[in-house]
Amino acid sequence: MSGFDCDVAIIGAGPSGIAAATALSKAGVRDIVVYEREAEIGGIPRHIHHPTFGLLVFKRPISGTKFIKALLKRCSNVRFETNTTVTALRAGGVLDIAAPDGNRRIRARHIILATGARETPRHPRLISGLRPIGVTTTGALQQFLYGARLRPFRRAVIVGTELVSFTALCTLRKAGIKPVAMIEENRRITAYRPLVLFARLMGVPIYTNTRITGISGREVLNQITVESPGSGTRHVDCDGLIFSGNFVGENTIARTSHLQHNQSTQIPQTDQNWLSSDPAISVIGNALHPADMGDQCYQEGLIAGTFVADLLVEKVSPTGAIMIVNHDATIKMTTPNIVRQQGDGDVRLNISLHVTRPYTGPISVTCGEQILYLKTRRCMPARRITLKNIKLTASQFETMSDLRISLGKPH
């Protein structure tokens, strides 16, 4: 390992990072280090005390905290360094690191970015008003309650209706905080419709087709103003406002590096084996597709880690022609967003996507004039849709055409 400080450096210790480390270790890779900027391992799930994890991995529902503990029992011969921030990603497998014992530079044979996702806070959502205390996100709420053991407010409104929004609803009730309402801009909730009944049983109204137009309170939040076409303008008294969901990939390190990005999503270009434009760097998990379930990210990390292990012993080659994956504006992102030919042969792959609005109808995948996939699918925002068994021939790579994914039949 001359000239290298480790075989594989993994950035991020959430489910996908832990999974990649587990697969690498089981494949015989010995020098693995996982860098985590937080003080604890586990990412977002470690804060979630509700049984919303484990169905895919352990075939039973468990809390996020138990889920992470169970995953770590499978992960041996791996070094975790917490309170450690990667400040720069460079070509040649080089990382700049800031840690409690000082700054340093290390070099790895391969780097895996498993930096996860974060919720969109208030300001990127372009909501006007003052900046009083009490405005937060679900992630920050979990840290207040379970990390600092603080109750930041007594009456709270939740913005959003994704699955994480209903997790926030449970968290509030468990902490003795009254949920006042849930606000959703779309005409129906983003999560599964039966959860409307769950909120109703908890006595929490859901205002759909409604947006926040103002936040009041000079120092501490005391009221929000909402508006909907049917009900007009109304005021809701509260001292807490929680922005939930609307996840984006945590790709700050990648964006400031030499890696190429998808022009429309600003997500790093990543192929069907999770290799970036630099074949010595992989990108996995919710950095690519925010925010899928922790179980899904773990399963993905296992496959990606196994591929990297094969790459290190040259069982597979990262070289080959590249095809760009383009998509409609109503598609939020695809995974992968590039397809890399291995050698000079055909490629068979699955493509996952997320939509920006509800859609039921045909989804097509084309390469030039050729239709590679055409099926009717039901799509909802924040849910992964997987298009399976798409085949690209060697001759299609030679045409230099792009792959196109569309909601609707090909024109």
Account of the 3D structure:
With 411 residues, the chain is an alpha/beta fold. It is built from eight helices and 25 strands. It has helices at residues 15-26, 64-73, 138-147, 163-174, 195-201, 252-255, 294-312, 394-398; strands at 6-11, 32-35, 79-81, 85-90, 94-99, 102-113, 117-118, 135-137, 155-159, 178-183, 206-207, 211-216, 223-228, 232-237, 240-243, 248-249, 281-283, 322-327, 331-335, 338-340, 347-355, 359-367, 370-379, 385-392, 403-407. Strands 1, 2, 3, 4, 5, 6 and 17 form a seven-stranded mixed β-sheet that branches. The longest helix has 19 residues, at 294-312. The protein is globular and about 60 Å long. The relative contact order is 0.13.
Query: Structural class of the secondary elements?
Result: alpha/beta
Tell me what portion of residues adopts beta-strand conformation: 25-35%
Radius of gyration: 22 Å
End-to-end C-alpha gap: 53 Å
Main sheet: strands, sense, barrel: 7 strands, mixed
| Helix content estimate | 10-25%
Mean pLDDT: 93
Count the beta strands: 25
What is the overall silhouette? globular
Number of separate helices: 8
Low-confidence stretches: none
Give the SSE map.
Layout: E1 6-11, H1 15-26, E2 32-35, H2 64-73, E3 79-81, E4 85-90, E5 94-99, E6 102-113, E7 117-118, E8 135-137, H3 138-147, E9 155-159, H4 163-174, E10 178-183, H5 195-201, E11 206-207, E12 211-216, E13 223-228, E14 232-237, E15 240-243, E16 248-249, H6 252-255, E17 281-283, H7 294-312, E18 322-327, E19 331-335, E20 338-340, E21 347-355, E22 359-367, E23 370-379, E24 385-392, H8 394-398, E25 403-407
Helix pairs in contact: 1-7
